Amino acid sequence: MEDILALILIFGGGTAVALGFSPIGRALAERIRGNRGGVDQEAIRAELTEHRDALAEEIEGVRREISELAERVDFAERLLAKQREAPRVGGAPRE
Fold first, then answer.
1. Which positions ≥6 away from 30 have C-beta within 8 Å?
2. % of residues, the chain, pLDDT over 70
């Protein structure tokens, strides 16, 4: 039983130390302390707003392209329907 406890403490402690020195551990420690590391919240907010606006513009562009493609498909379908309905020269009528 003591051997298992020793192994758990050794590997658990080693993992905790490794996590503490990793960037994830440092970020977690700063978050717990409440320290933002000099990060300007307004700058982050402005950057996120810019990204949101850029994505909204890109989505509008994609919607326009999809609309144009739908119109082209409709036009092609109408042309194909007319071609099927057109009388054929020298051929017997279809039944």
1. 36, 37
2. 84
> What is the C-alpha to C-alpha distance for residues 39 and 46, in angstroms, rounded to an integer?
13
What are the extents of the domains in the chain? Answer: 2-35+60-85
Q: Which residue has the higher pLDDT, 7 or 59?
A: 59
Q: What's the full length of the chain, in residues? A: 95
pTM: 0.46
* 19: nearest Cα among 6, 4, 9, 29: 29
Place of tokens 């402690």: 13
Retrieve residue 55's tokens: 């994505």
Give the tokens for residue 53: 């606006």
Tokens representing 59 are 């989505």
What tokens were used for 32?
A: 């717990």
H or E segment to which residue 1 belongs? none
Residue 64's Cβ-side half-sphere holds a number of Cα atoms within 13 Å equal to: 6
